[in-house]
C-alpha cells in the first residue's frame, strides 16, 4: 500500500504543476524533480497517510533527487520568499517507501501570491551542491 501511495505521490509531483512549468533539472548524473501545489488538491486518504493538512491556505513542496535515475537521499536547504521578500517558512521532512525517497514540505499560501523557492541540494556521498530555483503563483479561491 505504501509503495502505491509513494508512486501516486511521485506522479502527483509531475502532474500537478502548470503544463508550462519545468519540474526537472539535470546536473550530470543527478536529476532533481520538484513541484509545489495547494494541499487541497490531495485526495483525503493520501493527505492523511502523509500527514498533510488539506487546506486552501497551505501549500505542499515535493522534491525527489535521483542519481542515474535511481532515488537517493540528500541534504536539502530551502529558502522561500514571497514577492515582497518576506520569508515563507517551509517545514521539510524525508519520506521513505521501500527504496524510494522523497522530501515533502508544507508552507502557508495566499491567493494570487507568488512564492519563490531556492533549493540547495547535496546528494548523499557527494560534495556537489545542486542549485534549483523556481516560483509558483497560487490560486486558492
UniProtKB/TrEMBL annotation:
<feature type="signal peptide">
    <location>
        <begin position="1"/>
        <end position="21"/>
    </location>
</feature>
<protein>
    <recommendedName>
        <fullName>DUF4426 domain-containing protein</fullName>
    </recommendedName>
</protein>
<dbReference type="Pfam" id="PF14467">
    <property type="entry name" value="DUF4426"/>
</dbReference>
<feature type="domain" description="DUF4426">
    <location>
        <begin position="25"/>
        <end position="141"/>
    </location>
</feature>
<keyword id="KW-0732">Signal</keyword>
<dbReference type="InterPro" id="IPR025218">
    <property type="entry name" value="DUF4426"/>
</dbReference>
Amino acid at each position: 500500500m505504501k509503495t502505491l501511495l509513494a508512486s501516486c505521490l511521485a506522479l502527483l509531483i509531475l502532474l500537478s504543476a502548470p503544463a508550462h512549468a519545468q519540474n526537472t533539472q539535470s546536473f550530470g548524473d543527478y536529476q532533481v524533480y520538484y513541484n509545489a501545489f495547494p494541499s487541497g488538491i490531495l485526495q483525503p486518504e493520501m493527505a492523511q497517510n502523509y500527514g498533510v493538512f488539506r487546506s486552501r491556505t497551505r501549500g505542499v513542496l515535493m522534491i525527489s533527487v535521483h542519481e542515474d535515475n535511481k532515488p537517493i537521499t540528500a541534504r536539502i536547504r530551502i529558502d522561500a520568499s514571497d514577492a515582497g521578500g518576506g520569508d515563507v517558512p517551509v517545514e521539510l521532512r524525508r519520506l521513505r517507501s521501500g527504496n524510494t525517497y522523497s522530501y515533502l514540505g508544507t508552507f502557508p499560501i495566499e491567493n494570487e501570491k507568488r512564492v519563490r523557492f531556492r533549493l540547495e541540494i547535496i546528494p548523499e556521498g557527494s560534495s556537489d551542491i545542486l542549485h534549483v530555483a523556481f516560483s509558483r503563483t497560487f490560486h486558492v479561491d
